[in-house]
């Protein structure tokens, strides 16, 4: 059901993939959208897909704390001071055996996927606290259900994003100017069909996409994640599992942890 008021959502990683699909869905339902990304061309492409006058774009690196402040100041000035949802979505993919992964790549994954999200939470709090009923939404991953072999630095950051979401759900339960709380939600999508999967696996000539499909795992349409984002913002569960792989891993982690361990120890095909 479409929103009848111009609520405001700020989305990092808005230049492609999950961020773009979520922007399209929220804008179609009447929301004002702020898009942030390091990719200026991607931001322009996303903005062109949205209704005229509904989007603002900001070239921003989530590792840059000063940029977070300047960008949120600019967006909330344009939205009349309102920030209903901050979507901590920006992230990068990285795969390969840890022993073969360079320290520069490890540092980059942690800085963007973990510290970028933590920056958004720490700095975004003051803006969310001004809007009653606001929500911080974070993109975690099915890799935050059980540690993923071949994706250890990435999986580690997504476990941390999940922990941040669960912890802040309690910490911010009575926050905000009206004491009504700031909702905190996290998406745990399985492998989503986005450009992120084109990233190469460290120490291999294969992409993450080829590794995933070679393991017999399916890809989930990005539109399904956008719908899950809408449901998460408007629902009660802290964690929203998206896609068949995420649902199976959730079930296995609870009821068949031994089988899940065997799966992670299996040699990849090809």
Question: Can you walk through the features of this model?
Answer:
The protein is an alpha/beta fold and 270 residues long. It has a single domain, classed as Rossmann fold, CATH 3.40.50.720. 45% of the residues lie in helices and 13% in strands. It has a seven-stranded parallel sheet, with helices on both faces. Helix 1 (17-28) crosses helix 7, helix 3 runs parallel beside helix 4 (103-128) and helix 4 (103-128) runs parallel beside helix 5 (152-171). The radius of gyration is 18 Å and the shape is globular. The protein starts with 7 loop residues before the first strand and ends in a 5-residue tail after the last helix. Belongs to the short-chain dehydrogenases/reductases (SDR) family. Pfam families: adh_short. Residues 7-185 form the Ketoreductase domain.
User: What would you say the CATH architecture is?
Assistant: 3-Layer(aba) Sandwich
CATH topology: Rossmann fold
Strand content: 5-15%
Number of helices: 9
CATH class: Alpha Beta
Helix content: 40-55%
CATH superfamily: NAD(P)-binding Rossmann-like Domain
Low-confidence stretches: none
- Mind summarizing the main beta sheet? 7 strands, parallel
The H/E string reads EHEHEHEHEHEHHEHH
Order of neighbouring strands in the sheet with most strands = 3-2-1-4-5-6-7
Gap between N and C termini:
45 Å
- Rg, Å, rounded: 18 Å
What is the tally of beta strands? 7
Q: Give the number of domains.
A: 1
C-alpha geometry: globular
Which structural class do you get from the secondary structure elements? Answer: alpha/beta
Mean pLDDT figure: 88
């Amino acid at each position: 059901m479409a929103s009848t008021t111009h609520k405001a959502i700020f989305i990092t990683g808005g230049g492609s993939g999950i961020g773009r699909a979520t922007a399209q869905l929220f804008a179609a339902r009447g929301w004002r959208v702020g898009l942030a990304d390091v990719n200026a061309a991607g931001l322009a492409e996303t903005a062109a897909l949205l209704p005229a006058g509904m989007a603002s774009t900001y070239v921003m690196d989530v590792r840059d704390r000063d940029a977070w402040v300047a960008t949120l100041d600019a967006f909330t000035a344009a939205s009349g001071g309102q920030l209903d949802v901050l979507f901590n979505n920006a992230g990068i993919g990285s795969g390969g055996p840890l022993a073969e992964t360079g320290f520069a790549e490890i540092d980059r994954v942690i800085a963007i996927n973990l510290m970028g999200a933590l920056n958004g939470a720490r700095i975004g709090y003051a803006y969310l606290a001004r809007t009653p009923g606001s929500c911080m939404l974070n993109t975690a991953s099915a890799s935050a259900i059980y540690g993923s072999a071949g994706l250890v630095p990435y999986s580690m950051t997504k476990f941390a994003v999940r922990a941040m979401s669960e912890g802040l759900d309690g910490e911010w339960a009575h926050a905000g100017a009206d004491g009504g709380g700031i909702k905190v939600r996290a998406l745990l999508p399985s492998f989503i069909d986005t450009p992120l999967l084109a990233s190469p696996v460290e120490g291999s000539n294969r992409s993450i996409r080829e590794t995933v499909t070679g393991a017999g795992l399916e890809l989930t349409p990005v539109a399904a994640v956008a719908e899950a984002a809408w449901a998460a913002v408007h629902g009660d569960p802290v964690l929203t599992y998206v896609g068949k792989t995420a649902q199976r891993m959730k079930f296995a982690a609870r009821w068949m942890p031994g089988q899940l361990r065997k799966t992670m120890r299996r040699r990849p095909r090809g």
